Amino acid sequence: MTTVVLDPSGTAYPLATWSSTDAAHGFTLRTFDLSACAGQTVTLRFSETEDSSLQTSFVIDDASLSTS
């Protein structure tokens, strides 16, 4: 799974990439510092690719943004 932030021009900046080697039981909290994007309208994009031979499931249960 790859997480990127897209700036207003559509340029993608990678935040993180995970694979089956990062597997964990249950949910894991992930946080990102987006302070460099302050004052901009940005898009967060989560994408996943898997092949048919080795299934890996990534689940996003909740996403939130804090301005603190």
Kindly describe this structure:
The structure is a single chain. By secondary structure, the protein is mainly beta. It has strands at residues 2-6, 12-17, 43-47. Strands 2-1-3 form a three-stranded antiparallel β-sheet, with no helix packed on it. It is globular. The mean pLDDT is 85.
Give me the Rg, rounded. Answer: 14 Å
Rounded mean pLDDT is 85
Structural class: mainly beta
Helicity range: under 10%
Compact description:
The protein is 0% helix and 24% strand. The chain is mostly beta strands.
Key attributes of the depicted protein:
68 residues; 3 strands
Task: Reconstruct the topology from this structure.
Blueprint: E1 2-6, E2 12-17, E3 43-47
Antiparallel strand pairs: 1-2, 1-3
